[in-house]
Amino acid sequence: MPTEPQSPYLPFGENKHAAWFGKDIISVKQFNRADLEYIFGVAHEMRGMVERVGTFDLLKGKILANLFYEPSTRTSSSFTAAMERLGGSVIPINEVKYSSVTKGESLSDTVRTLECYADVIVLRHPETGSAAIAAKAARKPVINAGDGTGEHPTQALLDTFTIFEELGAGQVDGMTVTMLGDLKYGRTVHSLARLLSLFKVRLNYVSPDILKMPKEVMDEVGEKGIAQAEFSTLEKVLPETDVLYVTRVQKERFEDPADYEKVKSAYVIDPAIMQAAKQDMIVMHPLPRVTEISMDFDDDPRAAYFRQMEYGLYVRMALLAMVLGKA
Ligand code: NCD
Hints:
Layout: H1 33-53, E1 63-68, H2 74-85, E2 89-93, H3 106-114, E3 120-125, H4 130-137, E4 142-147, H5 153-167, E5 176-180, H6 187-196, E6 202-206, H7 215-223, E7 227-231, E8 243-246, H8 257-263, E9 282-284, H9 305-323
Parallel strand pairs: 1-2, 1-3, 3-4, 5-6, 5-8, 6-7, 8-9
Helix pairs in contact: 1-9, 2-9, 3-4, 5-6, 5-9
N-carbamoyl-L-aspartate is lined by residues 74-75, 146, 152, 155, 187-188, 248, 250, 286-287.
């Protein structure tokens, strides 16, 4: 029997005055520390509800349109699972043929169509800025599930929730986070660096020369007074690292395939390398991984990347409930 949740975070009725009701989620720039505390409070509650009752009727009758112009396994299925765990349903639209939003109105027309049938739209699209364009066209909430090399805000929220749950919320100020791999094309690190700049963290960026963190992101983070440093090898910074955030080299974004070949195996995390790291640190990865983390490391308790996926379910449940006025 589905049970109605009893929680200060999850009221029975729709709360149209709640701060996030009807809002789009386009960029991590929309969030402050108080928002994160609230979202993670709701996500924590969602975790408890899933463990206790599995599925419940908070979003019964609500419909999500899951509109994916780029491949996805985790993001798409976790939004589906999140909606269904909350008693809602999903219109899945996958591998849509991409037509440039700068050349035509097709994306705007598509979201205007979908909002006739759905209450919320989750969008993944290969162009930076596409989520903002969709949000402008739609009256219903649009959630950015990755816009090209731009942002991936729900991933950054789940990444930060993972850090809170694994290492303790009180530990984030003063922490050293090292981002490794493709920092140029990886949208997850663009969002995560921006979001972590709400805390007093130290950020290390380790990448091949051609895959450095974009200046625009570093400037924004720098303006918040965050210490940032760039490296081409991991050795020097690994011993001081509390969170090692590994990324895949984004093959699909390279203009010249020869460049990809040069950097595709630049870093491989394995048990031998990890001997130099602390015992109470974690290794994260948004996944999918290719060769950048050896499978031999998966059984190490510091390997947090599979747990990270599960945290994603609870964060996405929280976000859906919030924009639909139920949290
Ligand atoms: C990431 C993405 O799509 O940006 N994947 C994800 O959402 N978990 C990372 C990647 O594709 O490498």
